[in-house]
Specification:
This is Helix-turn-helix transcriptional regulator. There is one protein chain. By secondary structure, the chain is an alpha+beta fold. The protein has one domain. It starts with 8 loop residues before the first strand and ends with a helix. A three-stranded antiparallel β-sheet has the order 1-3-2. The protein is built from three helices and three strands. The relative contact order is 0.16.
C-alpha cells in the first residue's frame, strides 16, 4: 500500500532537477555543510520538498535584499 506524503521526500537527483543545480554541486555542498542538509534514511540522502522550497525562498529574498543596497 502506497501512502501519499503531504511533504514528499526528494533524492539528490530530484533536488538537482527541481533547482537546476547539478548533482555534483549538491554533493559538494553536503560535504561542506552548505545549503539545506539532507537526512540519511536507510543509507540514502533525502530532503523534504518544503525544506527545498524554503531554501529557494531564502535565496530569492537575499538576492532581492542585495539588489536594494
Amino acid at each position: 500500500m502506497k501512502v501519499a506524503l503531504q511533504d514528499p521526500l526528494l533524492r539528490i537527483e530530484d533536488v538537482a532537477a527541481l533547482t537546476g543545480i547539478p548533482v555534483n554541486t549538491w554533493r559538494t555542498w553536503i560535504a561542506s555543510k552548505k545549503g539545506p542538509q539532507p537526512a540519511k534514511l536507510g543509507g540514502r540522502l533525502f530532503w523534504r520538498r518544503s525544506q527545498i522550497d524554503r531554501w529557494l525562498d531564502e535565496q530569492f529574498a537575499a538576492a532581492a535584499a542585495s539588489e536594494r543596497k
